[in-house]
Specification:
Length: 238
Amino acid sequence: LSPALKYTWYRFRIPFAQEPVSFESVELYYSKTVWSQINFIEQFSPDYSMGRDGEKSVITLKNLKNLPITGITLKTESMFKRLVSGRDSQKYLFNLRFGDSAYQDLTLPTHGYASDTDDLSLYIDDNDDSPIKVDGIDIEYHAARLVFEAPETETLYLYYGNPEIDSPPGYDIANYMDLVLEQGYETLSLGKPEVLETASEPARDYSVYYNIVITVTAAALIIVIVLRLQKVNKNNPE
């Protein structure tokens, strides 16, 4: 079975069974591991050649060494449903039309497989049918490097794991930014930085003022106490 199934129940059939097959029990094995990964995907159309090997068509893809391929898509107008296999991967691909309805799956997943040779071969089981006509092939692969032109005088940062990256802020100016840039802009040139030095004032010593205030306050309290005592003595003579 594939890693994930989309329906809640499935029916399995055993073809060419002469007698009914009975089951005593059924066991379901599943993985509890859940993970997600986001990759940069690039696409290109490689050179290829067609050939035959018995009842199979052979498509040889060129110049794919060490390329982490995620999928190989056939371009064709032929109607078919056939088993297509490559290195460590196989799947029934089909391109069918019935009346106004079309059914199509032309991509062979390869899950990041990297070939150790320049050529990669695909095999299509034709059986007794005529080979399908392939008009082209698209390759999708993981982008291993990001290459861009960076300014020499600025510091660049690579952000990852930030949830805001998936939903960046949107502003109205983004809708007409190109029109603004087409109007042209002026460049302001800055001169050489100049350091301005200021004369530093010496720190003032306020301890003298503090001592004077404390002395005056203490003297005033002494006078008040003496006057109070004299008044008490006059009111209470012996």
